[in-house]
Amino acid sequence: MSAQDTATAPASAERRRRFSVEGLTKVFSTEEGQVRAVDDVSFTIEGDTFFTMLGPSGCGKTTTLRMIAGLETISEGRILSDGADFSRMNAFERNIGMVFQSYALFPHMTVFENAAYGLRLRRAPQATVDASVKRILAMLQLDGLAHRYPADLSGGQQQRVSIARALVYEPGMLLLDEPLANLDAKLRVEMRDEIRRLQKALGVMALYVTHDQEEAMAVSDTIAVFSKGRLMQVGAPFEIYARPASLFVADFIGKANFLPLRGDGASAATRSGVAFSGLARRAAGSNEADWFGPEAQAMLMVRPERMSLTPKAATGAGTLSGTVRRIQFLGTFVRYLIEAPDADRPVLIDRPAFVDGVVEGSAVDFGFAPEDAVLFERPGR
Amino acid sequence: MSAVAGGNAPVRRRGPDLLPWVAGAITLIVLVGFLAYPILTTMANSFAPQGESFNWFNGTLANFERFWTSALYRSALWNTIVISVAVTVLSTLVAVPAAYFVARVDIPFKPLILSLSIIPLIAPPFIGAYSWVILLGRNGIVTHYVNQWLGLPMPPVYGYFGVIVAMVLSNFTYVFLFVQGALSASDPHLEESARVMGASRWRILRTVVLPLAIPPMLAGAMIVLIEALGEFGVPAVLGGEMYVLSTLMYFQINGFFNLNGAAAIALVNVAITLVAILFLLRINKRRRFVTLGSTTRRAALIRTPGMRIAANLYVWGLLFLAILPQLVIVFTSFSERWPGTLWPLQYGWSNYTYVFNRVVGPIQNSLILGAIATVACVVFGTLTGYVAERKSFAGKWALDLTIMLPFILPGIVTGVALLVTFNAGPIVLTGTAVIIVIGYFVRRMAYIYRSVVAAVAQVDPRMEEASTVAGATWGETMRKVTIPLIAPGILAGAIIVFTTLISEMSTTVMLYSARWKTISIAIYERLETQEISAAAAIGTITIVVTLVLVFSATKIIGKSMSDLFR
Ligand SMILES: Nc1ncnc2c1ncn2[C@@H]1O[C@H](COP(=O)(O)OP(=O)(O)O)[C@@H](O)[C@H]1O
Ligand SMILES: [Mg+2]
């Protein structure tokens, strides 16, 4: 972003907004002592990016979001929005839209008044309120419901109202904390696409929180994977799937097979002695030593759909082999669960169709192309 | 795509949000000034010689020594303990069967029974107790018939007998409502599974039902005990020669204006109350039950004819006895001539015309003082209740304790504390309306506080956060979101507070002055001059006004009358 950009531009869609979080940390004092719920988190979001914080429950996503919204104090770090320091502003001055998991609609106000709330606070003239609310309700297909009360709406409709309420006053950014968690599966898929459509249509920066990796992959431009308060990796969905920076990310995003390897350097081999060369290598996360067990020096990761599967050949030397424990037909693909001496967990192999000559109980060979595998080296040696 | 809202609304920058701090500071000052300060002053002055204020050089235990040296003090202490324990035990014994019958036996008119059961709680001051003299006194109606038909003498109404009967019948409702609520809400599965396992009805009652009833029973008993330890009106009217601590305090101040002596008695009274509460809490702590089942199905009702007859007789009989004082008051208010005969000789409206000309002042005073105090309770009760529920901060227990303390302090102790504190020293308020308002405020704020805590707990904090993020200051969020949502709870609490203040007596007797006499004082004065029928007329008016107010509270929040007191 150039200096010129900042100098021009009243708030408009052309201007590229820039939001960043630097070294954000939150320490809660509880009876059991200090809890670092968020630990030194930094990231940047630009323009109308759909940015998602993804991670298992309890990893600090909500806390991060609440610090950004001003609902939680910051222990350390900075939050900058277009250069302005959020930490010096009251929550009500930050011009943010926020959607809560519980919707948090005002039960004593109609749909219209709920949606109009932010505009009324900004002392918008009645005509503006009418026009804007009408428009946003139409965009969310809530036209006929303006005079209903939240209690008379379905869960999906309530969710739409809470989105309307957060967007109507054109916030600088939209925060969503697990907004779909209370909806049923089908509606979840519909709503997530709709949220993205709306977000792009309005050109608003979105910061989305979910623990559901499929949901995150489906809606996001950028995903930030969290674990235990730390930011593990930031990247486009494909990037974090194909090039995970740590075992945690590899395991958490999609399905992954792990094969422990002994020896190091060029001579790394599985337990049964199958050796590999020419693999992409990277260090595992610094706190991931306990993934390796006592003997493994490295860990090989391959995605299930990248693996090949054949009935056991007579000359099996130098290949990975095992026994099929279970075959699951999952519609668009077939999943084989294979017990193999080279892996601690059953090896998953996804094939587009049934493999001839392989039934439950069959002895099989399996493998993969070297470029599809990632080798994580044991950290801290 | 361009703006939805037709132009970007400006972000408002308004500097720090001061309102919550200002509101908090004012509340703190009020709590400290009118609650903590009087209580501490009273404690200190109970250690000062008579007529002096406490300082570090005049500390003495003389005021407490009377509990050893004076027979009057000793007997007052003893009477207070005996009467309170007796009243608590008897109230519980009387109430639990009634609660069981209403909860578990198929009898008609249950909502009516529950509504009628709160009438004893709103008995008008003094005259309610006096009605037992009309019934059980030497020339009393009941005494006469018991004598005539059964040939039995009645014990004298003045003293233990009258005091205990009157207090049991006006207080058992607390236990009744608590236990009834728990028994009708408890999970029927428990009993059903006991029955499936072959337990007899008696065994089920003993092993399943009664244990469920014990925690609410103890909770109700605790309230009865607190009320009994602080009761002033009943022993004042029916005590005769017998003193309890509350009447002794009154006597020390009205007779000798011995503030230090009264402060010492107050301290002893409070100490007994605290010990009693700790004792009951301790019993209750050893029992941990989940009484509210997950099912919405209610317990199956017993329909055997024998049980239904027994239940109807018991419940209606008890209710009749409990409401009898009110009936007697209304009846007496229409008697124009009752010169010591069994029944009045002449009936009519003349007491009302007589009273109307004379009690306009006191009624006005009660309404004004009650209304101002209620508004103060609403403002500060709402603020503190909100803070207590929403914020966590160091010393929260102190806030809780400060507010809840007057809840367990006998009203007369609050009166004494304010009198001791504001009779001399930097601020002198005795004889003014202000001191009465403060007394009312201090005693009743806990009601609003508790309703607000309960109401705020029902409001999703995310709702307030949604409002904040949308751009609302704390004040705007309170005004537009929180207050509207908790308003019904506050309003119902306010009506109950106002209702009880109209006929407040135990604090008022300590603080009133010639200019500021209330309804209670008017009734008391009529009783002192033996204008019983006039007192009854004022009492009847009070009953009617009170019932109307309570009824409107039920309409406002859509709860039943009995729920307001549960
Ligand atoms: N107010 C609080 N006090 C103490 N600990 C908290 C508080 N809020 C959250 N935590 C802790 O911080 C951690 C992160 O919580 P959260 O941000 O809610 O996780 P997520 O949204 O990713 O599920 C959890 O361990 C949680 O227990
Ligand atoms: Mg969360």
From TrEMBL, chain A:
Location of the ABC transporter domain: 19-253
InterPro entries xref list: AAA+_ATPase (IPR003593), ABC_SmlMolc_Importer (IPR050093), ABC_transporter-like_ATP-bd (IPR003439), ABC_transporter-like_CS (IPR017871), Mo/tungstate-bd_C_term_dom (IPR008995), P-loop_NTPase (IPR027417), Transp-assoc_OB_typ2 (IPR013611)
Record's protein name: Iron(III) transport system ATP-binding protein
SMART domains with a match to the protein in the record: AAA (SM00382)
Signal peptide: none
Keyword ATP-binding carried by entry: yes
Subcellular location per the Swiss-Prot or TrEMBL entry: Cell inner membrane
Record organism: Devosia enhydra
PANTHER family reported in the protein's UniProt record: SPERMIDINE/PUTRESCINE IMPORT ATP-BINDING PROTEIN POTA, SPERMIDINE_PUTRESCINE IMPORT ATP-BINDING PROTEIN POTA
Sorted UniProt keywords: ATP-binding, Nucleotide-binding, Transport
Family in the record: Belongs to the ABC transporter superfamily.
Keyword ATP-binding found: yes
Membrane topology designation: Peripheral membrane protein
GO molecular function: ABC-type transporter activity; ATP binding; ATP hydrolysis activity
GO cellular component, one term: ATP-binding cassette (ABC) transporter complex
TrEMBL record, chain B:
Cell compartment(s), UniProt: Cell inner membrane; Cell membrane
Pfam annotation, one family: BPD_transp_1
Transmembrane segments: 18-40, 76-100, 112-137, 157-183, 204-226, 259-281, 313-334, 367-388, 397-418, 424-442, 485-512, 532-557
Keywords: Cell inner membrane, Cell membrane, Membrane, Transmembrane, Transmembrane helix, Transport
Primary location class: membrane
One annotated GO biological process: transmembrane transport
Keyword Ribonucleoprotein included in the entry's annotation: no
Membrane listed as a keyword: yes
PANTHER family hit by this protein: FE(3+)-TRANSPORT SYSTEM PERMEASE PROTEIN FBPB 2, INNER MEMBRANE ABC TRANSPORTER PERMEASE PROTEIN YDCV
Protein name, entry field: Iron(III) transport system permease protein
Record organism: Devosia enhydra
